[in-house]
């Protein structure tokens, strides 16, 4: 309002000043007679009145302007001290006392101090103390304001960095994709006291990831619990309870290993929460001593495993078990369809399982009689794997199973192959994998015998469509003899051993993909003998680069690339659909195989990779 009054006064002053000046100019140009009329006297009075009004208005303007300046000063002071403004009014100036005596004291520094001078110095020191306190108070105030500003700046910088992080590409990824990635990372949550499991590590990255993990219970449903001697077991129970809570009602995938020398009380405490949730167990891998299973509280899970689908019993120790003891904890599992048994044969001979329900059965590291006798109990078996089961005693008689579709045999020694294939007849087998135990170290003393395998195919008369031969000490002619019995084969994988550090065994130790094998796989438009593998569509070869015949290899691919259906039908050979080549060696020069790129350009799925030799 003060500003408004000031502007109105100025307008009023300017308006009346202009009128007075115009009236004076008009009347000064007219002649004025000596004897003025009454109207002339009125005009003179009016002029004096207006002139008086002019000085009055000028005084009013001065008063209003002063009032305006006063109000502005008060408004500015109130604004400076308002809490919301963030500003503080400067402190009222207090004149210091020390400068008044500074020159006098300076002179005393060069003279002898007398009694009056002492009084002067004492007063100066008192005043200096007071002034220093004032300076110190001001410094503290400014330091406090600086610290407050630095704190605000630091908070703003942190918030800016967090906001800038929201622009990263990872935050544009949909939650569904993040969940799929987290599922892969949390397949094995190992509960230990030293290293936090993946689910907890991921939940500590940022708030978004934490919310996603806490809202996805199945990421917490996989747990590996290893109770070993010499470790801190105090945190196992809280970790287990945390995962039980966050997994909600999801089916659990468990891997439990219990060391024989860990006291039963510690094991029972760690497993107590897990045992209470046995009705949620979907997959279980168990390694413990059967003689103390009752002490651990595992006896309570009998008949309480309605969701258990997969069971893996690994290296069960039975040193203290009586001879007639049976292990029947998993006898009543209505959903069980997959079992893996790895351990001593004595334990497996006394285990009680619903074998008639199994669709997948794996037996490892035992004798052939125990493995094949358990396999014969599986009436609905589809996938079977027998690993290193050539030890004595061997099985007697034949096992005919018409439900098995996929068979995997891992051979550690030479007698592992006949111990399995001599006693099996699988008329509906469609896929088979025969491999050594390691890709790096060929088996010493392994002498391949193809006769048991040839007799197996003749006896079974199966329609095999997929065959894999890996890491075997086998010759090219033995492979050809087997392939001639498989006219229905559609997929073939041959992989040589990666390590050839055993020269005492000769080149036949690893060399399988030889010119003889490659020439037998080539298609001749005018053959004198029936073609080998006429229905082959997928071929995968892994061989040593230094011994591979490149021309013969390219001839195999070129002769089997038959994109013309009429020509393919005329030859009675299926067109090759995919070709994978793995080159074992120290060098990774693929330039000599550049011709394979031509086939990729016209539709053949071609992959060439390098495997470094150890």
From TrEMBL:
Gene3D superfamilies for the chain: 1.20.1280.50, Ribonuclease Inhibitor
Keywords of the record: Coiled coil
PANTHER family linked: F-BOX AND LEUCINE-RICH REPEAT PROTEIN 6 (PTHR38926:SF5), F-BOX DOMAIN CONTAINING PROTEIN, EXPRESSED (PTHR38926)
Keyword Coiled coil: yes
SUPFAM superfamilies to which the protein is assigned, alphabetical: RNI-like
Residue stretches in coiled coil: 125-152
Protein name: Uncharacterized protein
């Amino acid at each position: 309002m003060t500003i408004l009054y000031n502007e109105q006064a100025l307008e009023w002053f300017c308006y009346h000043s202009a009128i007075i000046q115009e009236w004076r100019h008009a009347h000064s140009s007219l002649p004025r007679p000596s004897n003025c009329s009454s109207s002339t006297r009125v005009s003179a009075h009016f002029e004096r009145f207006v002139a008086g009004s002019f000085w009055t208005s000028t005084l009013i303007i001065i008063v209003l302007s002063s009032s305006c300046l006063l109000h502005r000063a008060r408004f500015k002071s109130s604004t400076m001290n308002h809490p919301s403004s963030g500003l503080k009014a400067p402190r009222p100036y207090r004149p210091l006392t020390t400068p008044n005596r500074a020159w006098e004291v300076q002179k005393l520094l060069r003279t002898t101090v007398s009694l009056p001078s002492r009084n002067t110095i004492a007063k100066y020191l008192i005043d200096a103390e007071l002034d220093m306190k004032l300076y110190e108070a001001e410094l503290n105030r400014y330091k406090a304001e600086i610290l407050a500003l630095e704190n605000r700046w630091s908070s703003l910088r942190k918030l800016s960095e967090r906001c800038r992080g929201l622009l990263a590409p990872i935050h544009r990824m949909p939650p569904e994709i993040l969940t799929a990635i987290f599922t892969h990372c949390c397949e094995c949550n190992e509960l230990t006291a030293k290293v936090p499991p993946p689910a907890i590590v991921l939940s500590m990255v940022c708030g978004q990831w934490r919310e996603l993990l806490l809202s996805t219970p199945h990421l917490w449903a996989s747990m590996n619990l290893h109770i070993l001697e010499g470790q801190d077991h105090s945190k196992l129970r809280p970790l287990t309870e945390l995962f039980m809570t966050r997994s909600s009602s999801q089916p659990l995938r468990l891997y439990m290993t219990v060391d024989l020398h860990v006291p039963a009380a510690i094991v029972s405490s760690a497993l107590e929460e897990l045992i209470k949730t046995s009705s949620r167990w979907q997959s279980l891998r168990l390694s413990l001593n059967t003689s103390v299973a009752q002490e651990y509280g595992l006896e309570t899970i009998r008949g309480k495993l309605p969701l258990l689908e997969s069971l893996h019993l690994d290296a069960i120790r039975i040193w203290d078990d009586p001879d007639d003891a049976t292990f029947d904890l998993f006898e009543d599992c209505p959903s069980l369809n997959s079992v893996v048994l790895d351990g001593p044969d004595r334990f497996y001979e006394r285990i009680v399982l619903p074998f008639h329900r199994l669709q997948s059965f794996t037996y490892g590291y035992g004798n052939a009689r125990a493995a094949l006798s358990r396999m014969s109990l599986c009436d609905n078996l589809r996938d079977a794997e027998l690993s290193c089961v050539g030890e004595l005693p061997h099985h007697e008689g034949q096992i005919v199973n018409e439900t098995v579709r996929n068979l995997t045999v891992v051979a550690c020694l030479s007698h592992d192959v006949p111990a399995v294939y001599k006693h099996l007849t699988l008329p509906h087998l469609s896929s088979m994998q025969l491999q050594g135990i390691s890709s790096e170290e060929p088996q010493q003393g392994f002498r391949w015998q193809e006769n048991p395998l040839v007799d197996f195919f003749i006896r079974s008369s199966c329609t095999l469509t997929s065959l894999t031969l890996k890491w075997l000490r086998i010759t090219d002619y033995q492979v050809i003899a087997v392939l001639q019995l498989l006219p229905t084969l559609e997929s073939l994988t041959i992989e040589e051993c990666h390590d050839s550090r055993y020269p005492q065994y000769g080149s036949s130790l690893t060399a399988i993909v030889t010119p003889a094998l490659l020439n037998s796989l080539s298609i001749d438009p005018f053959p004198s003998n029936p073609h080998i593998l006429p229905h082959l569509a997928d071929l995968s070869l892994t061989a040593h680069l230094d011994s591979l015949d490149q021309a013969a290899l390219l001839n195999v691919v070129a002769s089997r690339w038959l994109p013309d259906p009429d020509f393919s039908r005329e030859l009675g050979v299926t067109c090759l659909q995919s070709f994978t080549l793995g080159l074992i060696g120290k060098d990774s020069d693929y330039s000599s195989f550049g011709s394979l790129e031509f086939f990729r350009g016209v539709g053949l799925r071609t992959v060439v990779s390098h495997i470094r030799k150890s």
